[in-house]
Amino acid sequence: MTQKSKLKDEKMSSDSAEYSVIMRGVHKWYGQFHALKNINLNVRSAEKIVICGPSGSGKSTLIRCINRLEEHQKGEIIVDGIEISRDLKNIETVRREVGMVFQHFNLFPHLTVLENCTLAPIWVRKMPLAEANEMAMKYLERVKIPEQANKYPGQLSGGQQQRVAIARSLCMKPRIMLFDEPTSALDPEMIKEVLEVMIQLAGEGITMICVTHEMGFARTVADRVIFMDGGEIVEHNNPDEFFRNPQHERTKLFLSQILNH
Amino acid sequence: MVGPWAWIRKNFLSNTTNVIITLLACWFIIETVPMLLDWLFFDAAWTAENRDECRAKASGACWAVIGERFSLFTYGFYPIAERWRVNLSFVLMVFALIPILFDRAPLHKYALYIATALPLVAGWLLVGGLGLTPVETDQFGGFMLTLVIGITGIGFSLPLGLLLALGRQSNLRIIQIFSIGFIEFIRGVPLITLLFVASTMLNYFLPPGITFDLLFRVLIMVTLFASAYMAEVIRGGLQAIPKGQFEAADSMGLHYWSSMRLIILPQALKISIPGIVNTYISLYKDTTLVIIIGLLDPLGIGRASLADTRWTGLSNEVYLFVAIFFFISCFAMARYSLYLENKLKTDYRR
Ligand SMILES: Nc1ncnc2c1ncn2[C@@H]1O[C@H](COP(=O)(O)OP(=O)(O)O)[C@@H](O)[C@H]1O
Ligand SMILES: [Mg+2]
Questions:
Q1: How far is B238 from chain A (nearest CA, A)?
Q2: H-assigned helices in chain B
Q3: How large is the ipTM?
């Protein structure tokens, strides 16, 4: 083995330790429609990424490829050192480490808040019931709704439901959290309570990839902001530069639209 | 204004049309109900040796025919000395149903085991063998036969229909094709045809010398028939579950079967309850079709009774009696379905 290739090997392995998510040349088609075009993105562990862009630009598709809710057709995606492929075992391993929060909460309406939170720890992690309950209560306290534990999701407000959804994901102790527009289905007065929880979470060393148009949140929390349009990453930069000095016309147009609406 | 008068004013006499309808309804009730009660009870003959004796005694219904044939209506031709086995099976069934149907009953935790054990124990009691005198199934009849067919169909068509519904949505092409083919074939033919196949044609396909109990064949056909309908009812429920529920389950790393069992099916089945019970009720009533292949269900017993020269012409009494039996069973199922729906209501949609 030559010195050079050995070095390269070491670099590779340190890559996967250092990076939570690696996307290289990722393409995705829905039938004929080219939804993701040559996506290259490395997310360091504990990094906070905000993805924004106009509707239909492929933001959801991108983060849903990370936990294989959507399948990519070309390129490679490596999550926590595991390459995402057809292999179901790998996919399940990755999904256990990756939490996801959806725009419409997707809580289980037939289960109580507490049962929503304990379901995956019990059935996926095989945790004993008492321990799972205790842990779930801890996370429900963190999202400030322990008193709702025995209600059903349908009895809660949108903001409360989304906080339950965050607690439910955290109960799996994920290393990576994906957020797909977590506040866009909420009334303005509820957005704040959800963002507060997310900001608090950001202080805790977890990797976060958030699709959101909350620019205040991006400024406070993000290490990098990514702008997507037409299935491509058009621009990425740290938040200060991104907002002060956008490079591309499309970014400028988008920013002027969402900041002046 | 409060009290009953106010309530009547509000509900029955609020405007002219309402007043007219109320008056018409009252007139209709006054005309018919006393007559009906007279026929049913006050002018009815309860004991007699034959129809003429009834007629001589009273102008109303002749219930004596039911009284004389009651055990036939209940047990069919099950040997009299062995009828305690039917009674015991019935009692066991009632005791088994309590923990199965009501989640606050004791032993509810074991509902699934009880539900599995009941058919085996009851089957053994009814058919015999293993220490009990064997009873040929062609001696089964009456309400007991209805219950045997109905409960077997009800018990097995749900799990089978569930598998067919999941199979129909499967990614495995072969399973999907089989499920669709099965469902569409069964739904495309009348139950009577299947019963005829069960009673005659199956014999051609079986090797000579092998006999296959007729009742057993009927049970299979009735179950298959109901399960095809069940599958479609459940498929409707599955389709009503939003995609987000599957995605949330997937994103947590649950396996297909876990997410089906814990998340999708509880919701899909809950939505399907009215349709499931509807299928149960029609299955239960369809058991009367077995008369066509010579099994003596209550209607068969009724017809046999009417063929007796002592009781000819009493079809009102006989059919009313059978109808009441079916109505009680089906009404109970309908009420239970409502109870279950209310109990499982957790979507406090505003
Ligand atoms: N399941 C699908 N089938 C076909 N096209 C889809 C599907 N999901 C998304 N798309 C298309 O892909 C593009 C990107 O969608 P999406 O990732 O949801 O965008 P965003 O989240 O940025 O609004 C859109 O044009 C959308 O119409
Ligand atoms: Mg989206």
A1: 14
A2: 4-12, 16-37, 51-57, 64-75, 83-101, 111-127, 142-168, 173-188, 191-196, 202-205, 214-239, 243-251, 256-259, 265-286, 298-307, 315-343
A3: 0.90
